[in-house]
């Protein structure tokens, strides 16, 4: 999606400050646990979740913290899928004491270890490209990222569109995020690690020896 959500390579946001802490409050752990559990239950898939985050209005997106965006996306998807109504969500928000008491009685709370196990168990498995037999490109092939500006969800970053790179690795075959995010089916295709010279992306001001490796689906690429 084109918009503030595609922040890679954008100017004006200052340096990136790395935060060593993954979670800053107990509610953030619970939000991650809810996301993992709902994906496990098949309520929605990871691509739909990313698409929902991108649907947050730009001003709200920039004002929210990381897990606030997750929470907004969860609410959006639960309403979209008919799992909860806005009234039910509002009713839960108005009863924090009762909800806290219920959670405290859980026999198996969602600890960080359990959440991580669930997340890993439901990552999309890749099929080796040799089995699929459909990989169009091979390592060291020169390719160009298509200069396409799509309205829906896409994993093709804006700053790489129209730029040339070299195939570094063939990862295998994965569900195509662009269709999977909109309920149009997985339509699996090969995914490649593509190496782009930093100067090809950002000009002569970039360090001459730096490169960026980006995982891209085959339909994003064209031969050079």
The residue ranges in which pLDDT falls below 50 over 5 or more consecutive positions are 102-107, 128-132
Strand content: 15-25%
Please trace the helix and strand order, writing H or E for each element: HHHHHHHHEEHEHEE
The geometry reads as: globular
Mind telling me the C-alpha Rg?
A: 20 Å
Helix vs. strand class: alpha+beta
Number of helices: 10
What is the oligomer described by this structure?
single chain
Helix content: 25-40%
How would you characterize this protein structure?
The chain has 224 residues and is of the alpha+beta class. The protein has a five-stranded antiparallel beta sheet. Helix 1 packs parallel to helix 4, helix 1 runs parallel beside helix 7 and helix 2 crosses helix 4. The chain is globular, with a radius of gyration of 20 Å. About 5% of the residues have low confidence.
Topology:
Blueprint: H1 26-40, H2 46-54, H3 58-63, H4 66-80, H5 86-93, H6 96-104, H7 112-121, H8 129-132, E1 142-145, E2 164-174, H9 177-180, E3 189-197, H10 198-202, E4 211-217, E5 221-223
Antiparallel strand pairs: 1-2, 1-5, 2-3, 3-4
Helix pairs in contact: 1-4, 1-7, 2-4
Question: Quick gist of this model?
Answer:
This protein is an alpha+beta fold and 224 residues long. 38% of the residues lie in helices and 15% in strands.
